Amino acid sequence: MKKTSKSYQLFFEGDDYYSALRRDIASASRCVLMESYIFEDDEIGLEIIESLIAAARRGVLVRIIADGVGSYSLHQDAIRRMRAEKIELSIFRPLGWFGMLSIRNHRRSHRKLVVIDGNICYAGGMNIVRDHSRRAVGHESWRDSMIRLVGRIAMDAELSFDRMWRFVSGRKLVFPRSRPAGVVYSSADLQLIENTPRFRLAFRRAYRDSLASAQNRIWIESAYFIPTLSFLRLLKRKARAGVDVRLLVSEKSDVKAAFYASRFVFSGLLKAGVRIYEVRARFVHSKALVVDDRISIVGSANLDHRSFLHDLELSIRSTRPDINHDLAHQFSVDASRARLIDGVEWGKRPFTVKLLERWFFLFKFYL
Predict the structure, then answer these.
(1) pLDDT, tens digit, for every residue of 13-54?
(2) Domain boundaries, position 278
(3) CA 259/CA 303 separation, integer angstroms
(4) pLDDT single digits (tens) 182-194
(5) Are residue 248 and residue 211 in the same domain, yes or no?
(6) Are residue 153 and residue 262 in the same domain, yes or no?
(7) What is the pTM of this model?
(8) Residue 103 is part of a domain; what is its CATH number?
(9) Alpha-carbon Rg for the chain in angstroms
(10) How many domains does the chain have?
(11) Where in the sequence numbering do the catalytic residues fall?
(12) Are residues 157 and 234 in the same domain?
C-alpha cells in the first residue's frame, strides 16, 4: 500500500518502493547516493544494480555504502561488475580474519538512505534484498515502512551521506560545498535525525522528547523492541497517565535472541496499561512511531539498545499531520491483523520460555 502527496510518499510494501526507486534512478542526472545495511545481488538487488549501471553509463555519479556484516553475502562478482561500470562502492567495516577480532565490529551501519540529485531522498527500514518483496517471496515478505521526500531535506540527506562516505572511504567529496558547515536545510516540520557518534545524544533526545510530549497516544512499530530503562519507564509512566500506548511486534523474527529478550519487558508494560499487538502472518520489520496527531518518526532505528547505543542510524522526524495520519492508519491496518496480547494469558507462559526471555535479556546491550 502506498500513500501519496506532492511532497512525500509512504511505502509499506517493498515492491512499491523498489519500483519508485528504479524510476527515480532512471531520471537521475547528477548523482545517486545509496546506503543499505543489507545489499544483496538476489533478483531484487540485481534489478537495482542494473538501474545503477544504466545511470553510471549516462555519466551520473553513483556511490554505494553497504555494511560489512549485513551485506556479507554480496558476491565479489557483483562488486567487480559495479566497479567496472564506474560505480563507487565502499564497505563499512568489512569482516576479515583480523576484522572479526576487532571490538569495533560490534558497531554497524544500519542506515537505509537514498539521495538522488540532492532533491529526492528515501529513508526507512527497507534494505536492498528480496525479503521485502511479495513478488520474490510471496505473502511471507517483510512488512516495512519507507518514506520518499522531495525538497530541501534531501540536501541534508546528501550532507549526511557525504559525512558517511568520507568516514568509510577516506576519499574527498566530489561536490564542493559553498554553504557553511552545520547549516541545516530541513524545514520546521521535517527533520533528518541521525545516530552517529557526533549526533548520538541529539538523536536519543529527539525520540525521548517526542515520547515525553504525548498527551493522547503513542503508537510504536518496532521489529526489535528492547528499550533502554529510561525509555521503558517513560512508556509505562505515559500509559499510567492515561495515554493510549500501543506496541506492535511480530510473532516471528530473524533474530531469536532479540525476540526472546524483547518479551521479557512485556509483563511490566501490560501491567502499566500498554496494549501489545503481535502479528503472526508476517514479520513486521517497520520502525515507526506516532505521537498524538502530529509527531511521527520513520527510519532505520528500532527502540532497542543496539540502535540507540551502538549502530549508526538515520530517521525522519515529522510534525506534519498528514504523515502522522498515514502512519497511524497503517498501524491500525497492521493491528487489525494481529493478536492483542492478554495480560492474564501472558502470565501463563511456560517456565522454560520465561527462562529463555530472562537469559537473553541479560545481553540486551548487544542485541
Answers:
(1) 999 999 999 999 999 999 999 999 999 999 999 999 999 999
(2) 193-366
(3) 13
(4) 445 567 799 999 9
(5) yes
(6) no
(7) 0.93
(8) 3.30.870.10
(9) 20
(10) 2
(11) 110, 112, 117, 285, 287, 292
(12) no
